[in-house]
Amino acid sequence: MMKTSLRCILAGFASCTILYASASPLQPKAVDELTGHELSAQYYAYPYTDSPAPALTPAPDGYEPFHIEHYGRHGSRWLIDQRDYEYPVAELEKAERNGYLTPLGKETLELLRDIAAKEQGRREELTDMGALQHQLIGERMVRNFPQVFAPGSTVNAKSTIVIRCILSMVNELNSINKLAPGVKVLADASNADMRYMNFDDTTGVKIRKAAKKKELKKFQAKYPEKGVFLTRLITNPEFIRDSIDNSRVERRLWRVLSNMQSHIGMPWLTDRVFSREEQHGQWMRSNANWFVEAGNSKLDELMVGAAAFNRWKSGQWGSTLFDVIKAPSQYACYNSATGGTWARKTPTERVVESAKQVISGEFAIPANIIFQAQFVQGPLFMTISPHYYCYKTGQTLADTDVFGRTALTAEQLQARAAQLDGAGASSDAINSSGGASLSVGDAI
Length: 444
Description:
With 444 residues, the protein is α/β, with parallel strands linked by helices. The chain has 15 helices and 9 strands. A 4-stranded parallel β-sheet has the order 2-1-3-4, covered by helices on one side. A 3-stranded antiparallel β-sheet has the order 5-7-6. Strands 8-9 form a two-stranded antiparallel sheet.
């Protein structure tokens, strides 16, 4: 008899939000429909502690669950930077000493002092809300899929070595054990697993650091922190102008107040202290930072296309680009045989632009770069998180592209991608491997 099982992995990353996978997709909201809690960006706490989780899609007739793979994040946590708690208190205390605090200012300062005192020694750690989130995830797993947790089943859980992740795992396992005492639980947190659970992408870090220094600052400047919220906390405009350092206050106060939802029973003052416009500005600034950290880039878009184009020219995956994309066990995001849905999606203008630029030869890479995956498959040419671009072991890197031109280096390709972003495609015709003219539309 086959034993059912659960594998659970808790990894440590920067945000305190946890996402629970559901087969029933959530519908996105328009920006003007977002609540203050949701505008808190990465501080928006996992919502299914006081509201029902999305309904699950029923299994097809004749099928029943037998195995779960759960990849989760740590629960809500205390903020990382202790100065987020200290600076707003110090600045508002200046106004308090001079008798300039409004009633809301006094209420805010009282809350800030309370949370700062409770935070002592708990920087980055799991909060009570974070523990509850994982308890409920474990409980829902057992209640929704009792077959997986039949007596004799195995739960194999791993965590990174970060304490908030270990405690998240423990809280989830405790809930499972409470409702399914007959399961066998294996739990571990070891440096041996950190190489894949919290991968240190040094190349990606350099790329992101450069982007933050230049492009992120430029974007965030569109949403300046004007300090208008201070007029709701302090009565004297001249004192605000001359004595309050808003560069130390606005963003940090927004973080602390937004993160109050990470604690059970704490007051919610964000909507009273900050206007809708100010909350939206912080939300946009924060979203831009996360896009630089983990969003798709023009360079990666072009590299994916160029690697696929090289595969087509190599003839190893078929005679057309469609053969390459639809090859079994290759592009799972597209291949419907493995559950992909991209074949039915409408591409964005930038995606179409990138496809044309690759097919027309405006962007090309060394001819033998044919491996692109989220893991290393051979000698490494370039890393663009989360992808690794490689060529076959035993080969040397090709010095020409598939068009016979001198191949560009990784640094030159980065510069080329920046040039092509938004530039359109200069040509709508290319040459096929047989020399016949082929329109870009046909090739796509």
